[in-house]
Amino acid sequence: MAALIARGVETRTGLVTVSGAIRKSGVQEIDLGWTLGDVAARAGGLSRPAQAVLLGGYFGAWAPIDEVWALPVEPQSLRARGLTFGCGVVHLLAEDACGVDATARIVRYLASQSARQCGPCVFGLHAIGECIGRLAARCAHASDLDRLKRWTGQLAGRGGCKHPDGAAGLLHSALTVFADDFVAHQGRRCVRRSTAHPAAVGQLAAVA
Predict the structure, then answer these.
(1) I need a surface site. Which of 74, 94, 171, 207 has the fewest CB within 10 A?
(2) How many domains would you assign to the chain?
(3) Which helix (H) or strand (E) holds 146?
(4) Do residues 59 and 82 share a domain?
(5) 63 lies in the same domain as 129
(6) CATH number of the domain that residue 165 is part of
(7) SS in 3 state form for the chain?
(8) Domain presence at residue 42
């Protein structure tokens, strides 16, 4: 985020990286008073219907698209809704993409990036990554979804740094926004027509 001073007048602008179900992916300079809908319009509009948006990057949170479309992408406005501007990532997830699959890719990436200096990262993130990986692959163990919910609640605040907290926050939002999808995957089926494209998750990894 940048506060630019022009001729003595402060203009609040920010840089966001827009990706996913959008016509023009890339970095945009925006007015922080713009809504998510305005940001999408600046990026050429949606390329296909979207169900959710990841705001703030890998340490951010998922939100249902219809609940935040008219919300200003301004840090205080986002915080008031339990969201974050973070590193300025706006990733729009298409309706036919699987939120469980998209979240599993991110969580397993975060687990692989651990400094391996404390138990919550070495064991906690690894176990969570394996658990959500089985759910995404539709080969879940009988209690995987219950374990994922319990472990996510237990992980935050226990690490030597905020790395596990970020992963727990992202997972908590996913378990809420994609609740029906997680239940379907626990039953070894997916209600979506496609999975999140690996390239889209790769775009996020570059800016997380």
Answers:
(1) 207
(2) 2
(3) helix 144-155
(4) yes
(5) no
(6) 1.20.1440.230
(7) CEEEEECCEEEEEEEEEEEECECCCEEEEEECCCEHHHHHHHCCCECCCEEEEEECHHHCEEEEHHHHCCCECCHHHHHHCCCCCCCCEEEEEECCCCHHHHHHHHHHHHHHCCCCCCHHHHHHHHHHHHHHHHHHCCCCCCCHHHHHHHHHHHHCCCCCCCHHHHHHHHHHHHHHHCHHHHHHHHCCCCCCCCCCCHHHHHHHHCCC
(8) yes
| Whole-angstrom distance, CA of residue 173 vs CA of residue 146 | 15
Using alpha carbons, list the distances in angstroms from residue 133 to 161, 178, 202: 24, 15, 17
Residue 87 makes CB contacts below 8 A (sequence gap 6+) with 17, 56, 57, 59, 60, 207, 208
pLDDT of 159:
79
Expressed as residue numbers, the domain containing 31 is: 2-94
Query: Do residues 85 and 12 both lie within one domain?
Result: yes
> Mind listing the pLDDT tens digit for each residue in 190-202?
998 655 444 444 4
Same domain, 146 and 171: yes
This prediction's pTM: 0.84
Helices and strands: H and E segment counts in the chain = 10, 6
- The answer on 129 and 85 residing in a single domain is no
In the chain, the percentage of residues whose pLDDT exceeds 90 is: 70
pLDDT on residue 194: 56
